[in-house]
Design goal:
It is a single chain. A 6-stranded mixed β-sheet has the order 7-2-1-11-18-17, covered by helices on one side. Strands 13-14-15-12-16 form a 5-stranded antiparallel β-sheet. The chain starts with 5 loop residues before the first strand and ends with a helix. It is α+β, with helices and mostly antiparallel strands. It folds into 2 domains: about 190 residues, 3-Layer(bba) Sandwich (FAD/NAD(P)-binding domain); about 100 residues, Alpha-Beta Complex (Polyamine Oxidase, Chain A, domain 2). The radius of gyration is 20 Å and the shape is globular. Helix 1 runs parallel beside helix 7. The longest helix has 16 residues.
């Protein structure tokens, strides 16, 4: 791929942000486009008044050398910190690590792309409002694979392998208590058929609050069985089980539920990314090699580097 190129990255989760960082540092012109109002995808922070909840990804780990270097830089810059064991979190919220990766890149929020068109070696993107975003030399799709498949179908384009990936969903419960709660753990994995994970969110670094806050993740099977129920109903059901499991009698001052339809990859692609050099179209994400934050980062970084190798 000749330098510099104008590249659209659809999806500002960790994979897309990783690709954008690598591409921008190599002199390319990168535009990030995301349907939401913030960065990070499932590496999200929910704000309720002065409280915050890491209701998506709970933490991340670092195993590969490059990601360790990025994490060290983020810690030095004040965007990440160690939580417990070898687990790290963004500070003051998980989405802070995404902001670190984004830097000063151009990001177009609240823009849901539904189709791509390629003419005269350039790409045009059409969003759901009918607006066209033109003039891109290359496009990278950094979304859950079913969302990538939908865009490709609308565009009459194929990327081999994108439809073979499977996910499990997750319902997340956010709780705040104005009084002390007898929960000594920072985080707890459970073999309960309903609740898989409980984290005392307020124990994470820089989460200063007068309330004790918790994030509870339901099991994949329970989430799948109750996927289409109203969030308020889910919140009450999970609170009941949480109170029973932890033997907590206090009533929360805040109770919210959030559905992650594509929470965890159960059948990954098995290779780091997809790239069609003939049309300069690629795809990356945690669906490529696994569900970890580091997997998503490596997928985006490796795809960006593969683009350079096409020179």
């Amino acid at each position: 791929m000749p330098h510099p190129q104008s590249i659209a990255i659809i999806g500002a989760g960790i994979a897309g942000l990783s690709a954008s960082k690598t591409l921008a540092e190599s002199g390319h012109i990168v535009t990030l486009i995301d349907k939401s109002r913030g960065l990070g995808g499932r590496m999200a922070t929910k704000r309720v008044g002065d409280l915050t909840f890491d209701h998506g990804a709970q933490y991340f780990t670092a195993h590969t050398d490059h990601f360790k270097e990025i994490l060290e830089s983020a810690i030095k810059a004040g965007f990440a910190a160690k939580w417990e064991l070898n687990r790290y979190v963004g500070v003051p919220g998980m989405s802070s690590f995404a902001r670190f990766l984004a830097g000063q890149r151009d990001v177009r929020f609240d823009t849901a792309v539904e189709a791509l068109t390629r003419t005269s070696n350039h790409w045009s993107l059409r969003d759901i409002n009918g607006k066209h975003h033109d003039g891109f030399d290359a496009v990278i799709l950094s979304l859950p694979s079913p969302q990538i498949s939908a865009i490709l179908k609308n565009s009459n384009i194929e990327l081999e392998g994108i439809d073979q990936i499977h996910y499990s969903p997750c319902w997340a419960l956010m709780l705040a208590f104005d009084e002390a709660v007898d929960f000594l753990e920072q985080a707890l994995s459970s073999d309960d058929p309903i609740i898989a994970w409980i984290a005392k969110n307020s124990t994470k670094p820089t989460r200063t609050s007068t309330s004790e806050t918790f994030v509870v993740h339901a099991t994949p099977q329970w989430s799948a069985d109750h996927l289409e129920l109203d969030a308020n109903i889910i919140a009450k059901m999970l609170l009941s089980r949480f109170s029973e499991l932890m033997q907590i009698k206090a009533n929360p001052s805040i109770i919210l539920a959030h559905r992650w339809r594509y929470a965890r990859v159960t059948k990954p692609l098995g290779r780091p990314f997809l790239w069609d050099k003939n049309i300069n179209l690629g795809a990356c994400g945690d669906w490529a090699m696994g569900s970890r934050i580091e997997d998503a980062f490596n997928s985006g970084n490796m795809l960006a580097r593969a683009c350079f190798n096409e020179d």
